[in-house]
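We give this protein:

***
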Amino acid sequence: MIRFIDEHRDRFGVELICRVLRPAVQGFLTSRGYRAAVGRAPSARQLKDELLVPEVARLHAENYGVYGRRKMHALMRRQGWQVGRDQTERLMRLAGVRGVRKSKRVSTTRPDKTTVLPSDLVNRRFTAPAPRRLWVCDVTYVATWSGFAYVAFVTDVYSRRIVGWNVAATLRSEILPLQALDMAAWNVGGRLDGLIHHADHGSNYTAMVYTERIVELGAVPSTGTVGDSFDNAMAEAVNNLYKTELIRQRGPWRTVEQVELATLEWVWWWNNSRLHGELDMRTPAEVEEAYYADQESGQPAPAGQASR
């Protein structure tokens, strides 16, 4: 009420605003009540809100504008602010920000029914005792003004870190997913001995050139059931969040190159800054650092809920 009167007092005057609106709006201030309110010293809550609301807006914007109450509360606590979850929600409303909602999944799987497929070594159990034990892979697409951009991700199940990715104008196995796999292998030293590589039955993942590369690197290929998204649920979740947090937030997209640059920035944020609820509000980088630190000390380090 006070803000409304402040915005219109120069045009209509305080007395006229209060006289007209008080009968129509239950509990509207009288002119005397307004003057008493504006003359009163600001409360401790008001002063704190003036400090925290811009901080909430800044942190929300720095994290792609996607965090809801739960993650904003965790982020504020990490920044040293002693705030509650309900208080965080109220501050977000004052700042005019809110979290994003996930969209429905769109399938990009094109199975090749003539190919002999690897067995399913995961059976929907997306858990791993350590990094570099189980990777999940999938492809999604982004519509641009110059045609489709296809995006491949390789994700480590233990830490949820995106270890490899690629953006291309084609789905061809030797260009799109193979380059993402090679990036992932390079990031961990080149060899993947003992690692399970899990994907769906898409033809770009079951092509001979791709499966031979998996075996050459020392990994074991695994595939889920055709047409069942639950058999590659974690990779599907990464694609969904990529679309929700980046593609739909920042579009429309003009070129494949623009998508590639934005994906580079998003992957860095995902791995190093984004708080993951499945990792107890930690980042993938923090989870892996904790694992290797505990290995040196001889104490086991749990990852998030998905790896327990």
